[in-house]
Specification:
This protein is an alpha+beta fold. The protein folds into two domains: 48-58 and 181-222 and 257-263, no CATH class; 62-178 and 226-249, Alpha-Beta Plaits (2-Layer Sandwich). 36% of the residues lie in helices and 32% in strands. It is built from four helices and nine strands. Strands 2, 3, 4, 5, 6 and 8 form a six-stranded antiparallel beta sheet that branches. The longest helix is centred in the N-terminal third of the chain and has 37 residues, at 5-41. This is SIMPL domain-containing protein. The chain crosses the membrane at residues 12-31. Keywords: Membrane, Transmembrane, Transmembrane helix. It comes from Candidatus Kaiserbacteria bacterium RIFOXYB1_FULL_46_14.
C-alpha cells in the first residue's frame, strides 16, 4: 500500500480550493468594476452636461443690393416688349456708366402676359345675362433686374437714376457684408469661449469635474442685414428726384454653439 496517496489527495484538494478562491476573487473584482461603472455613468450612459454659447461680431457693411422693375403695355406683344426694352436698356446703360460692373447686374424675372377684357352682351330686361366672351385686350411686360452696389456712396444716386429712367418699382436696398467667413470664425471663437466659461461655472456649482468634450453642434444663424428703404419705392420720371441719404449702420454676425461635456 502506497503511504504517499493520502498526502497527494490532500494536496490535490488544496490546489482545487486555491483555484476556486482565485475564481471567486476575480468574479468579485469584475462585479465591483461593473458596479462602479454603472454608478459613474448611470443607467442611461455616462454623466454629462450641455451648455450653450453665443458669440457676436458687429461690422460695417461693404456691399449693397437692390432690384428694380419696369412694366410696359402695348396693343400687341411686340409693342409692349419694345417699350420695356427701351426703358431697361436706358437704365442698364446708366448703371454701367456710373461704375456698376456687368457681373453685378442680373436679370431676375421677365414676364410677358396678355391682358383680358369681357365683351358686353345685350340682354333683355329681367332675363339672366351671361358674362361676355373673354378677349385679349393688349399685352403687358414686366422685367425685374437685381443690382449689386460695391461703392455704397453711389447707392442713392443709382436708385434715383433708375427711377428717372422708367423704373416703376424699387425694392428695399439691403446692405450686407460680401465675405463674412473671417467674421463668422471670430464669432464662433467667442461662442466657444462663452460655452467653456459656462461649463466651468456649472461644474463648480455641481461639485463635479469636466473630463472631456463629447459633442459639438453649431446652430445656423445668418447675419442681420440692414435695409436702407422700407417697402416698395415708386419713382416717376416726370419729377426730378432727390437722391436719398442711405445710412449703412452695422451688421451683426451671430454664432450659437451647443457643447456637451463628460463629467465625473
Amino acid at each position: 500500500m502506497d503511504t504517499n496517496q493520502p498526502f497527494l489527495s490532500l494536496w490535490y484538494v488544496r490546489v482545487l480550493l486555491i483555484i476556486a478562491m482565485i475564481g471567486v476573487v476575480m468574479s468579485l473584482s469584475a462585479y465591483t468594476k461593473l458596479t462602479l461603472r454603472e454608478a459613474k455613468y448611470g443607467q442611461y450612459g455616462m454623466t454629462s452636461i450641455n451648455v450653450r454659447g453665443e458669440g457676436e461680431v458687429n461690422a460695417k457693411p461693404d456691399i449693397g443690393s437692390f432690384s428694380f422693375s419696369v412694366t410696359a403695355e402695348g396693343a400687341d406683344a411686340a409693342t409692349a416688349q419694345k417699350d420695356s426694352a427701351e426703358k431697361i436698356n436706358s437704365i442698364l446703360t446708366f448703371l454701367k456708366e456710373s461704375g456698376v460692373e456687368e457681373k453685378d447686374i442680373k436679370n431676375r424675372d421677365y414676364f410677358l402676359n396678355p391682358k383680358y377684357r369681357y365683351e358686353a352682351v345685350d340682354c333683355a330686361m329681367g332675363m339672366y345675362c351671361p358674362p361676355g366672351n373673354q378677349v385679349i385686350d393688349g399685352y403687358e411686360v414686366t422685367q425685374t433686374v437685381e443690382v449689386k452696389v460695391r461703392d455704397l456712396d453711389k447707392a442713392g444716386d443709382l436708385i434715383t437714376g433708375a427711377g428717372e429712367r422708367g423704373a416703376t418699382n424699387l425694392s428695399q436696398l439691403q446692405f450686407t457684408i460680401d465675405d463674412e467667413s473671417n467674421l463668422k470664425a471670430e464669432a464662433r471663437e467667442a461662442a466657444i469661449a462663452d460655452a467653456k466659461e459656462k461649463a466651468n461655472k456649472l461644474a463648480d456649482s455641481l461639485g463635479v469635474k469636466i473630463v472631456r468634450m463629447m459633442g459639438y453642434y453649431e446652430e445656423e444663424n445668418n447675419s442681420s442685414p440692414y435695409y436702407g428703404m422700407g417697402g416698395d419705392a415708386m419713382m416717376s420720371s416726370e419729377v426730378k428726384a432727390v437722391s436719398p441719404e442711405l445710412p449703412t449702420g452695422e451688421n451683426t454676425i451671430k454664432t450659437i454653439v451647443n457643447i456637451t461635456y463628460e463629467i465625473q
